[in-house]
Amino acid sequence: MGTGLILATMLAEGAAEGGHGGGLVELAAKLFNFAVLAGTLVYFLRSPIARYLVDRGTQIRSDLVKAADMRKSAAAQLAAIEQKMAALPAELEALRRAGVEEMAAEDARIRQVAEAERARLLEQARREIDARLKLAERELVARTADLAVGIAAARVKRTITAEDQARLVDRYLGSLASAPAAGGQVPA
Q1: Angle at CA 163, nearest 5°, toward 159 and 168?
Q2: Out of 31, 77, 114, 136, which residue is the most buried by the measure of CB atoms under 10 Å away?
Q3: 148, exposed or middle or buried, with CB in 10 Å at 0-12, 13-18, 19+?
Q4: Which residues of the chain have pLDDT under 70?
Q5: Is 145 domain-assigned?
Q6: Is residue 95 part of a domain?
Q7: Quick check: is 65 in a domain?
Q8: Residue 10 has what pLDDT?
Q9: Domain range enclosing 109
Q10: For residues 10-25, b (16+ Cβ closer than 10 Å) or e, as one string?
Q11: What is the rounded distance in angstroms from the CA atom of residue 182 to the CA atom of residue 188?
Q12: How many C-beta neighbours within 10 Å does residue 27 have?
């Protein structure tokens, strides 16, 4: 119907211009040329245009499938992120609790180490005190013995007379003389 309208319009213009039949022949020639050109274009371009339209339809379908896949993937990622965000407060609380527990355990370990070191130092101090006490006791005993011997010697010097000394020497010599007869032992 559209082609018929165009054709009728062209015929009317040709008749109005010249009013002669020559305009009609000219119009017919133009129409024939147009039809040949349109037919040639349709004949040669039908296959590439059809292939282009098929390829373009395939590409559009492929792009739509990719877009749907990307949308699903993005929705899954968004859901995973939202799930992680929802779990984040609980995870932070768990980390805080773990940190508090680790600090308490470290505090207990430090106390235990400090108590062991304190006990070791106390034991070492006790041993050192005991060693010094024993040394002081030995020195005291030795000093006391020296003083006792000194006092005894002084007392002996004060109380023993020359007669007592002579009598002791005689008794000692007498015991030496009787010693070989008694088996060679000296009486104390």
Answers
A1: 85
A2: 31
A3: exposed
A4: 1-22, 180-188
A5: yes
A6: yes
A7: yes
A8: 59
A9: 17-160
A10: beeebeeeeeeeebee
A11: 13
A12: 19
